[in-house]
TrEMBL record:
Residue spans crossing the bilayer: 6-27, 39-60, 72-93, 105-129, 149-170, 182-204, 274-290
Lineage: Bacteria, Bacillati, Bacillota, Bacilli, Bacillales
Coiled coil: none
Position of the signal peptide: none
Keyword annotations from UniProtKB, A to Z: Membrane, Transmembrane, Transmembrane helix
Protein name: High-affinity iron transporter
């Protein structure tokens, strides 16, 4: 249980640290650190909300009898987070092409319009999603005794490890130029957003909210390929694969669950998961291209008019 608590806490905490760290590093690099306090407000509210979910689940709800209701909450948070992260990717891309002007003043003007709420909502949803997922995962591995997992050394070491890795990551970005920083972090955010989308689709298909165009003979959601023998998406899938085939997968399920949490990796995606995952990247790339053309056109007009 300690090892499971460590892995769960590390991956959930690190993803939250990664995104919140990108927001705060971004604000620091453009000289808008006055917004940091609102990011922290969102983080604190999210931690309080996560603790509230854990408390309710522990003392009021009836464990596994109500765990099905978590799916609706997870779907909603994942989809909203995907939209917000996608917006951030496009926003950062736009600003990276506007650095020749008075960047700080431009961004300050943009952030002023609903900026406080924007910072709070972004940081809140990022952290609360990880917090709520941690609560549900802890409930699963302990049979509903969340407090037992929270007090384990595995959870503590996982949190410390996530903080250390996050610190080392962002310390390494200090020497990176702002334009390069935008590009690198935009890729991270886009991959996380795409992963959230495909995870939400998978959950909706599992509980019957969303159908599929390809079903098995038994009427279940069909898969277009299966990579379980290469890398299972969860240790339980690894155990089942070993039991069924007598062979170890090429890559451990512990690695698979890490990639699933970050990138939405699926060992056996449905048609909808596969198509929407890559369609998401295509849409983002097209929108970034349109942004670039719009900026170049505006820059050309300003050059002609001398504005």
């Amino acid at each position: 249980m300690n090892v499971q608590s460590f892995l769960i806490t590390f991956r959930e905490a690190f993803e939250a640290i990664l995104i919140v760290g990108i927001i705060m590093t971004y604000l620091k690099r453009i000289g808008q650190t006055q917004w940091n306090k609102w990011v922290w407000v969102g983080v604190v509210l999210a931690l309080a909300a996560s603790y509230g979910v854990a408390l309710v689940f522990q003392t009021v709800l009836t464990g596994f009898a109500t765990m099905g209701s978590q799916n609706y909450l997870k779907i909603g948070i994942m989809l909203v987070s995907c939209v917000l992260l996608s917006h951030m990717v496009l926003f950062m891309g736009q600003q990276s092409r506007s650095m020749q002007g008075k960047l700080e003043n431009k961004i300050s003007a943009i952030l002023t319009v609903g900026g406080v709420l924007n910072m709070i909502v972004h940081s809140f949803l990022v952290v609360v999603r990880e917090g709520v997922e941690t609560v549900f995962f802890f409930a699963a591995i302990t049979g509903g005794d969340i407090q037992k997992a929270l007090q384990s050394w595995g959870a503590l070491i996982g949190l410390v490890a996530a903080l250390i890795v996050g610190y080392l990551f962002f310390r390494g970005t200090r020497k990176i130029q702002l334009k390069t920083f935008f590009r690198i972090t935009s890729v991270f955010l886009m991959m996380i957003a795409g992963g959230l989308l495909v995870q939400a689709v998978g959950i909706m298909q599992d509980i019957g909210i969303m159908g599929t165009i390809y079903k098995t003979a038994g009427g279940e959601v069909g898969e277009i390929y299966n990579l379980t023998a290469i890398m299972p998406e969860h240790p339980l899938d690894e155990t089942q694969h070993i039991r069924d085939t007598g062979e170890q997968p090429l890559i451990s399920g512990q690695v698979g669950i890490f990639f699933k949490a970050f990138l939405g990796y699926t060992q056996n995606p449905s048609v909808e998961e596969f198509v929407l995952y890559w369609a998401f990247y295509l849409v983002i790339i097209i929108m970034q291209g349109l942004q670039k053309k719009r900026y170049e056109k505006l820059h050309a007009v300003q050059s002609i008019t001398g504005a």
